[in-house]
């Protein structure tokens, strides 16, 4: 497994496993505490694992947590997703940058998203399972959502949106969220 820094988002990493493939399919390690530790992260900091299943075109996000935020490891365990990270840490050298990745169940890469970054994804396959390893227990009172189609971000989502939650459909703009965070 190798770790690669994400240049567009300070402190973000892409962990790429080495799948062992044969006629049965494949086997790979999707988490390695030593590799996580090698880039300065505490592997014991992750306290909650979650899984979402989405159908093609479903868009989830852009989500982040207020307060101390939440760091997470995200992996598409089955199918393919278009995954997006937006740096919303005012003191970060990559503040307001965003980066996108195609995460697939075929190659099993894991994306580390630092606390203070927004995250969203769109399912590209009929079924897409997305796994999350999160460093804090979820508190719905800290949930923040940003409009997926915010013109300032201009994220080129690859498919028309098939479904999304009401919360995501009604999300405020990035400018509104940042204004609220500053007050």
UniProtKB/TrEMBL annotation:
The gene is rfbC. PANTHER family: DTDP-6-DEOXY-D-GLUCOSE-3,5 EPIMERASE, THYMIDINE DIPHOSPHO-4-KETO-RHAMNOSE 3,5-EPIMERASE. Pathway: Carbohydrate biosynthesis; dTDP-L-rhamnose biosynthesis. Its EC number is 5.1.3.13. This is dTDP-4-dehydrorhamnose 3,5-epimerase. The keyword Isomerase applies. Belongs to the dTDP-4-dehydrorhamnose 3,5-epimerase family. It catalyses: dTDP-4-dehydro-6-deoxy-alpha-D-glucose = dTDP-4-dehydro-beta-L-rhamnose. It comes from the Bacteria. Catalyzes the epimerization of the C3' and C5'positions of dTDP-6-deoxy-D-xylo-4-hexulose, forming dTDP-6-deoxy-L-lyxo-4-hexulose. Gene3D superfamilies: Jelly Rolls (2.60.120.10). The keyword Isomerase applies. Homodimer. The lineage of its organism: Bacteria, Bacillati, Actinomycetota, Actinomycetes, Kitasatosporales. Keywords: Isomerase. Pfam families: dTDP_sugar_isom (PF00908). One of its GO terms (molecular function) is dTDP-4-dehydrorhamnose 3,5-epimerase activity.
């Amino acid at each position: 497994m190798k770790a690669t820094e994400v240049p567009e988002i300070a402190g973000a990493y892409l962990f790429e496993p080495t799948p062992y493939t044969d006629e049965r399919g494949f086997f790979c390690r999707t988490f390695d505490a030593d590799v996580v530790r090698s880039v300065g992260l505490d592997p014991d900091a992750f306290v909650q694992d979650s899984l979402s299943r989405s159908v093609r075109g479903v868009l989830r996000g852009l989500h982040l947590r207020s307060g101390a935020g939440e760091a997470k490891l995200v992996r598409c365990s089955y199918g393919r997703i278009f995954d997006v990270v937006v740096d919303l840490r005012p003191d970060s050298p990559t503040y307001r940058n965003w980066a996108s990745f195609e995460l697939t169940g075929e190659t099993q890469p894991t994306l580390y998203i630092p606390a203070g970054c927004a995250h969203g994804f769109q399912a590209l396959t009929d079924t897409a399972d997305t796994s999350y390893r999160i460093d804090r227990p979820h508190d719905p009172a800290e949930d923040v959502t940003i409009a997926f189609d915010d013109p300032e971000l201009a994220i080129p989502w690859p498919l028309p949106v098939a479904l999304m939650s009401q919360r995501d459909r009604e999300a405020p703009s990035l400018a509104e969220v940042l204004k609220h965070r500053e007050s």
